Amino acid sequence: MPTYTRIIATGSYLPEKILTNKELESIVDTTDEWIYQRSGIRQRHIAADGELTSDMAIKAAHKALEQAGLKPSDIDGIIVATTTPDRTFPSTAVIVQAGLGMSAGLAFDVQAVCAGFIYALSTADGLMRAGQAKRMLVIGAEKISAILNWEDRATCVLFGDGAGAVILEAHEGQEGAQSDGILSTHLYADGSFKDILYTDGGVSLNGISGHIIMHGREVFKQAVNLMSDAVTAALEHNNLQVSDVDWLIPHQANIRIIESTARKSGFSMENVVVTVHNHGNTSAASIPLALDEAIRSGQVKKGQLALFEALGGGLTWGSALVRL
Ligand code: UT7
Q1: Which of 63, 91, 178, 317 has the most neighbouring CB atoms within 10 Å?
Q2: Distance, CA 206 to ligand 1 centroid (Å)?
Q3: CB within 6 Å of ligand 1 — which residues?
Q4: Are the CB atoms for 323 and 179 separated by under 8 Å?
Q5: How far apart are CA 121 and CA 22, in angstroms?
Q6: What is the pLDDT of residue 173?
Q7: Interior angle at CA 180, CA 177 and CA 186, nearest 5
Q8: What pTM, to 2 d.p., does this model score?
């Protein structure tokens, strides 16, 4: 029997502090109306001073463990997708491991910016199919506020902090569209776009973490085309139609990108999970945050088929088809 992996639990965490569009009006030359019309964002959560990416990841992980009825010692692998690690090294994943009181199993970070969660999910799926682990925590966690230029109105109004986690479990069984779990993942990158979304700092570049620089219109255009290609790839690979999929769970960057990608892929917005209005763009945390909220609110149910899609700096992008 082949091994496949299932998402058995989800958890998430948002920092206490909420920053509204109205409050941003006193920080940069912007308006609530501009932000909402151009992005769909009403508010975002911002981590407290001293609240680290690992702190948020650990809280999301505890929620997922609680939902699964598991102890940290039941987990034998952790991958954290993040662009905003606590430190240059060690990885945020080992800090999370220590924070959960674990001292065994594999742990490392994945850096694929806003596509990080799909990259991490795919990596964990591959490791588990290869027998490297039986239960893994895959976490997207970001303190994006730490790399925002709070004088750049074109970027600082769009992002937020938070963390989302899933627990993956290895199972033996039938693969294919009717089976549980991750049916397929599809990862892509094109470094020729590295200069349309990046930070102006880095360890070997200048020794600082830098701030986000984004050519918004160009990213927008590429995002819609490339994410809808990734959606098509997932459907074709599994011989499925749009009507077979219960939920599109996209990276939450901008409602206009979400709507355009859904339209181009043939999805009705009734089948799209949207949280961008309350969270802003939380980068690698956005899909697991949206998934957890949708499951806990009862919107998304066990047994339903969900298609994740994301795009981030690099450019990196991808999709994953998962029966929940
Ligand atoms: O996670 C993946 C990475 N990120 C994304 O997916 C984001 C991709 N891009 C976008 O979401 C959109 O391009 C933005 C929301 C960033 C911008 O929307 P847009 O419709 O592409 O606007 P724009 O960049 O073309 O700017 C339009 C105008 C400009 O003024 P002028 O040149 O027309 O006079 C900007 O200076 O809006 C101005 N502007 C603002 N005005 C008020 C830019 N930022 C703001 C602001 N408030 N915060």
Answers
A1: 317
A2: 28
A3: 30, 34-35, 38-39, 114, 153-154, 157, 197, 214, 216-217, 219-220, 223, 253-254, 257, 281, 311-312
A4: yes
A5: 36
A6: 76
A7: 60
A8: 0.97
209/133 Cα distance (integer angstroms): 33
Give the number of the atom of ligand 1 that is nearest the alpha carbon of residue 281. Answer: 1
Per the residue annotation, which of 21, 45, 114, 254 is the catalytic one? 114
29 Cα: distance to centroid of ligand 1 (angstroms): 13
Q: What is the pLDDT along the chain (324 residues), one digit of tens a residue?
A: 668 899 999 999 999 999 999 999 999 999 999 999 999 999 999 999 999 999 999 999 999 999 999 999 999 999 999 999 999 999 999 999 999 999 999 999 999 999 999 999 999 999 999 999 999 999 999 999 999 999 999 999 999 999 999 999 998 876 655 578 999 999 999 999 999 999 999 999 999 999 999 999 999 999 999 999 999 999 999 999 999 999 999 999 999 999 999 999 999 999 999 999 999 999 999 999 999 999 999 999 999 999 999 999 999 999 999 999
Distance CA 107, CA 91 (A): 8
CA separation for the pair 133, 210 (Å, rounded): 35
CATH superfamily of 3-172: Thiolase/Chalcone synthase (3.40.47.10)
Please give the Cα distance from 160 to 212 (Å, whole number). Answer: 13
Residues of the chain with CATH 3.40.47.10: 3-172, 182-323
Check if CATH label 3.40.50.1370 holds for domain 182-323.
no
